[in-house]
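Quick one, tokens below. Sequence please?
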């Protein structure tokens, strides 16, 4: 559990919120899910895997406990050298400090609302955390895991459930035909596998 302070920064309580059943979350109360607005004005789902949450927590605490103090000390040392307007180390340090603080504020706001979720052991329909394999009309197969916006790694096969592909796949079953809307036209695909682990 993350405790968010009035400053916008967070501290970690090692007693995490228990994982939630994603099928229940999506089927029973999907319209009531807590959503956050990203910089593009789009809603961001607040679900994340346990591993994803730990990664964000580790990044937060590294920035807060290691990176930020080091940069603050560097800025302080550079300021003692004299004219700050021509001091490259001072200018860079202040810029880096602003970047760190922006990231800490963002991570703090996300950690405040994120909820750990896990896919069902034997998913019958597509839900958060599932690995989904589909084929298009030409027989080209693709496999993706549906994750939250904080865990997107396309090169690793992880796409957001908020993306057009993710939205098209959600709640679908094996052998379902799906039409995915893309900038260059619609794509019809067929689900060939749904799994809790990578095939």
């Amino acid at each position: 559990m993350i405790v968010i302070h009035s400053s916008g920064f967070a501290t970690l309580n090692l007693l995490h919120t228990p994982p939630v059943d994603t099928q229940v979350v999506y089927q029973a109360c999907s319209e009531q899910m807590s959503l956050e607005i990203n910089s593009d004005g789009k809603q961001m789902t607040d679900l994340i895997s346990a591993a994803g949450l730990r990664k964000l927590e580790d990044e937060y605490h590294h920035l807060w406990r290691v990176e930020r103090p080091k940069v603050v000390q560097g800025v302080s040392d550079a300021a003692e050298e004299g004219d700050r307007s021509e001091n490259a180390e001072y200018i860079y340090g202040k810029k880096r400090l602003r970047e760190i603080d922006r990231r800490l504020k963002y991570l703090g706001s996300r950690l405040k609302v994120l909820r750990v979720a896990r896919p069902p052991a034997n998913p019958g329909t597509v839900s958060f955390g599932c690995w989904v394999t589909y084929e298009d009309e030409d027989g080209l197969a693709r496999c993706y895991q549906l994750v939250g916006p904080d865990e997107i790694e396309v090169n690793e096969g992880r796409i957001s459930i908020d993306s057009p592909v993710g939205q098209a796949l959600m709640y679908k079953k094996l052998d379902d035909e799906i039409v995915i809307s893309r900038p260059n036209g619609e794509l019809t695909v067929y689900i060939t596998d749904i799994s809790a682990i990578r095939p």
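The first strand starts at residue 2 and ends at 4. The chain is about 35% helix and 25% strand.
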